[in-house]
Every structure is written in C-alpha cells, then in structure tokens.
C-alpha cells in the first residue's frame, strides 16, 4: 500500500515535471512569437515612414515643378516684354527718321 502510494507520487512528480517542461517550451514559443510580432510591427512602422517620406518627396517635387513652371512663364513674359519694348523703340526710331527726313526736305525747300 505504501509502495503503491510512493509509486503514484513518483508518477505524479514525473508527470508534473513533464508538464513544467512542456509549459516552459510553450512559454519560449510564445516569447518567440511576441518577438516576431514586435519585429513585424517595427517593419510596418518603417514601411509607413518610408511611404510618408516618398509622399513628402512627391509633394516637394510637385511644388518644385510648379515653381519651375512659374519661373519659365515669368522668363517668357520678360522675353516678350523685351521684344515688345524693342519693337516699340524701333518704331519710334523709324518715326524720328521720317520726321528728320521731312524736316530736312522742308528746310531744303
């Protein structure tokens, strides 16, 4: 009877030890999964940061493109204005030449 109880106690102790080892194994597995989950969260955060960075680059490029277009349009306007001023000056020169010729002709008569 005592031998039976001792045997049962020994079996229960062995079963308890096996269950503790199994529990430790599962704890390590859960810890490993938690680490993988943390790494995935970091990776996701990095991916979101990269996406945000590219969005900022695209936004900046759009503003830069708009600015470049505005500068180009301003240069074109200045060029056209210069052309118009030149044409106006040439027209005035022609008018003055005509007046001068007319005055010379009148003074010669």
Q: What is the element layout, followed by pairings?
A:
Blueprint: H1 2-108
Largest sheet: none
Overall pLDDT confidence: 90
Instruction: Kindly provide the radius of gyration, computed on alpha-carbon positions and rounded to a whole number of angstroms.
Output: 47 Å
Instruction: Report the structural category.
Output: mainly alpha
In terms of per-residue confidence, which ranges show pLDDT below 50 for 5 or more consecutive residues? none
Describe this structure in words.
- It is a single chain.
- The chain is an all-alpha fold.
- The protein is 98% helix and 0% strand.
- The protein has one helix and no strands.
- The longest helix has 107 residues, at 2-108.
Question: Could you name the key traits of this structure?
Answer:
109 residues; mainly alpha; rod-shaped
């Amino acid at each position: 009877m005592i031998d039976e109880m001792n045997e049962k106690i020994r079996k229960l102790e062995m079963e308890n030890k096996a269950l503790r080892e199994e529990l430790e194994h599962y704890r390590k597995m859960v810890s490993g999964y938690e680490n993988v989950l943390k790494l995935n969260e970091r990776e996701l955060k990095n991916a979101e940061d990269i996406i945000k960075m590219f969005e900022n680059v695209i936004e900046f490029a759009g503003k830069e493109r708009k600015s470049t277009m505005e500068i180009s349009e301003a240069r074109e306007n200045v060029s056209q204005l210069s052309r118009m001023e030149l044409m106006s000056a040439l027209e005035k020169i022609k008018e003055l030449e005509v007046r001068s010729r007319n005055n010379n002709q009148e003074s010669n008569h």
